[in-house]
Design goal:
The complex is a heterodimer of chains A (410) and B (278). With 410 residues, chain A is an alpha+beta fold. Chain A has 13 helices and 13 strands. By secondary structure, chain B is an alpha/beta fold. In chain B, 38% of the residues lie in helices and 24% in strands. In chain B, strands 6-7-8-3-9-10 form a six-stranded mixed sheet, with helices on both faces. Chain B has a four-stranded antiparallel sheet with strand order 2-1-4-5, with helices on one face. In chain B, a hairpin with a 2-residue loop joins strand 4 and strand 5. Chain B starts with a strand and ends in a 5-residue tail after the last helix. The chains are: A alpha+beta (410), B alpha/beta (278).
Chain lengths: 410, 278
């Protein structure tokens, strides 16, 4: 059935029926093109949203201290809330569902850091090992901070890539001694961070060492932890539990929104996820609509094409064409046109997406539009099948009517 | 070659049942040149369609080359058409987007002949009808007579045993008709049975046998000595040129063919009565 000769016969027909070919092809190409552009743009929006959250773990809760704003148990408002190591330990152990956790101790201002003759001024973050997960820090050389660093108050430091590059240039920083604020630390690792440039200019130190070295006593500025795979409701419970523990420890009204700030990323992320899925559903609805329009278009043209060819079919039958050969002539032609046109639409759509990606330079809301090639191919196949089905029934009818009736059709 | 026994065919049009062929008995041998005449509605086109397996019959018997043709599936019918029968139609029925040689080659495509072979054979037949120089022309670029010759080449290319021509000259002027008839006579000389459906008396007399259909039955079946189209020319031209009596006869003949009364004049064709140069 798929002989070379048969294809030549089809090419011949296609070549001589340019308008019909064009219309069929256009319906398919347009459908696929629109679908690809739509899905790709939708994906671009999703990527844009994901990019916003690329810096930190999306399932995390961040607690910062503030100032009380309402009187509570006879105490005046306006008191500073100051977290300490005990707060951190209690939150970590008593809030159910905490996965990774870390406290942050801020060493105010940037510190002079030098290695041999190189020096610069960098910000320090004193943290627990769990911070790596929370900040999505990628260790690219050596290791991150660990429990031993904390327990033994080791003077270990993990440098951001930019710090390492500035201080060490081509030298291997691992194991080297650097001085931070005049105190000697040993470099144990180098990290990268997908967040903004500033994230790569940090130096991480063990919080215990930093508290002791930089006069922090047991001060903690931020408590952060991940919630594992907690649902939104569960994460809200965890945030509530955290607030209650801290309100008892520091005697403030648990409802006081300014005494401490609990930032639930799960909640934020869920909102965005909901928005993204809304976008995705919308894109699919429109996409399927476009595809349906394409299916209807192709079907319509096939119906008309077969109708228009009734006489030709009659002639072919009089010359010895079997009904089967007529049906396969129509079908193969339809499949050929829709496949080629579908492919063209696909390529064109992808090109437009590429152009779009270049034209919109990494805007936060729209980046890296791409289309799932399997979806695009499935859509093309759907249109090809639709064209074939739409062609099949009238073709079979035309092939089945007696040639004399087909010939009479003027 | 062809054997019909008590062949019946009726159409249902709306509520009415139209009995078109009312028991046809007919034998046509190999290498015969036969004309079937009849008024419109006499069933001659229906007869040809049934002979050509383009239409089914209701009752009776049709054997073609010894094979029964009752109750064929469309696929079988297509195979027999491809194998045995060539068609020439009044309106040529060339495929408009194929050029002359492609049109001629089409029946061979359906016989599974390889493309190169197909085109060579198609060219041979185009040469036979004198149109080798028009091989690349589309039907729309050919005159009516040329189109009909292409159609004849197409009907012959698959070397059928039977050529069915439905009003082959119906759309052509008299000079062109004559050319076409010459070709058809030559076809018969080459060994093909040719059945021509016509209502033109002149054309009918260029065959060896004249069958008259009246109202779905064979009303006359007579052998005759075929006229050479070149001889008839004179008559046709003579009739066209001199004014009064003959030119009036020409439309009258056609007009008579349209009335059932024609059957009475079967034995004495008008043209035979005129002096023949031979």
């Amino acid at each position: 059935m798929m002989s070379f000769d048969a294809w030549q016969e089809i090419f011949d027909t296609v070549k001589h029926n340019k308008l019909r070919t064009f219309l069929t092809g256009f319906a398919v190409a347009w459908g696929i093109f629109m679908l690809v552009v739509l899905l790709g743009s939708g994906r671009g929006l999703e990527h844009g949203v994901d990019y916003q959250f690329r810096d930190d773990a999306v399932n995390s809760i961040w607690v910062s201290s503030g100032q009380t704003s309402v009187p509570y148990k006879g105490l005046q408002p306006g008191r500073d809330v100051r977290f300490d190591n005990q707060d951190y330990d209690e939150v970590r152990t008593r809030v159910p569902g905490v996965e990774y956790s870390s406290a942050r101790y801020w060493i105010f201002g940037s510190q002079q850091v030098n290695y041999k003759n190189e020096n610069g001024s960098y910000s320090i973050r004193a943290v627990h090992p769990g911070h790596q997960v929370l900040e999505r820090t990628k260790v690219i050389q050596g290791r991150y901070l660990n429990e031993f660093d904390l327990r033994q108050f080791r003077k270990s430091a993990v440098l951001g890539t930019l710090v390492a590059a500035a201080l060490f240039r081509d030298e291997d920083p691992i194991g080297k001694e650097i001085r931070i604020g005049g105190i000697s630390f040993k470099v144990v690792g180098v990290f990268d961070d997908e967040g903004n440039e500033r994230e790569r200019e940090f130096i991480y130190l063990p919080i215990s060492t930093a508290q002791r070295t930089f006069n922090g006593a047991n001060r903690v500025n931020q408590i952060l932890y991940t919630t594992g795979d907690a649902s939104l409701a569960k994460s809200e419970e965890m945030a509530g539990a955290t607030r209650r523990i801290l309100s008892v420890n520091h005697t403030f009204d648990p409802e006081d929104q300014r005494a401490i700030y609990v930032n639930n990323n799960v909640e934020n992320y869920q909102k965005i996820v909901a928005l993204t899925s809304a976008i995705r559903i919308f894109v699919w609805v429109v996409g399927i609509g476009t595809l349906l329009a394409g299916v209807v278009g192709v079907s319509n043209i096939m119906l008309v094409a077969v109708r228009e060819r009734t006489r030709e079919i009659g002639i072919r039958k009089a010359l010895g064409a079997t009904p089967g050969s007529i049906v396969s002539l129509v079908l193969q032609e339809s499949v050929l046109i829709t496949t080629v046109a579908g492919y063209a639409g696909l390529v064109l759509g992808v090109l437009v997406l590429e152009g779009l990606a270049k034209a919109i330079p990494d805007a936060a809301f729209f980046r890296n539009p791409q289309v799932d090639i399997r979806v695009a191919i499935s859509a093309t196949v759907l249109l090809v099948v639709a064209g074939a089905v739409a062609g099949f029934f009238p073709a079979r009818r035309a092939a089945a009517i007696r040639p004399i009736e087909a010939l009479r059709d003027e | 070659m062809i054997r019909l026994r008590n062949l019946h065919k009726s159409y249902t049009i709306g509520r009415n049942r139209l009995h078109v062929l009312k028991g046809i008995d007919l034998d046509i041998g190999a290498r015969e040149l036969v004309a079937v005449m009849g008024a419109s509605g006499s069933g001659k086109s229906t007869l040809m369609n049934i002979l050509g397996l383009l239409d089914r019959f209701d009752d009776g018997e049709y054997t073609l080359d010894g094979v029964g043709m009752g109750d064929l599936s469309e696929t079988r019918a297509a195979q027999y058409r491809s194998q045995y029968i060539g068609f020439v139609f009044q309106s040529f029925h060339l495929i408009p987007f194929k050029n002359a040689v492609e049109n001629v080659a089409l029946p061979l495509y359906y016989q599974g002949v390889p493309r190169k072979d197909r085109n060579e054979r198609a060219m041979t037949y185009l040469e036979k009808v004198g149109l080798a120089d028009r091989a690349e022309h589309l039907p729309s670029e050919l005159s009516g007579g040329q189109q009909q010759r292409v159609a004849i080449a197409r009907a012959l290319v698959a070397q059928p045993k039977l050529l069915l021509a439905d009003e082959p000259t119906g759309a052509l002027d008299s000079a062109t008709s004559r050319d076409v008839m010459k070709v058809l006579q030559a076809v018969q000389n080459d060994g093909v049975s040719v059945v021509i459906i016509t209502h033109e008396r002149d054309i009918a007399h260029m065959t060896d046998r004249l069958i008259h259909l009246v109202d779905g039955r064979i009303a006359g079946d007579s052998r005759q000595r075929r006229l050479n189209p070149d001889d008839v020319v004179v008559e046709i031209e003579a009739r066209d040129e001199p004014p009064v009596p003959q030119s009036a006869a020409s439309p009258a003949t056609i007009g008579m063919a349209g009335t059932p009364g024609t059957s009475g004049s079967v034995g004495t064709p008008a043209i035979a009565a005129e002096p023949s140069p031979g």
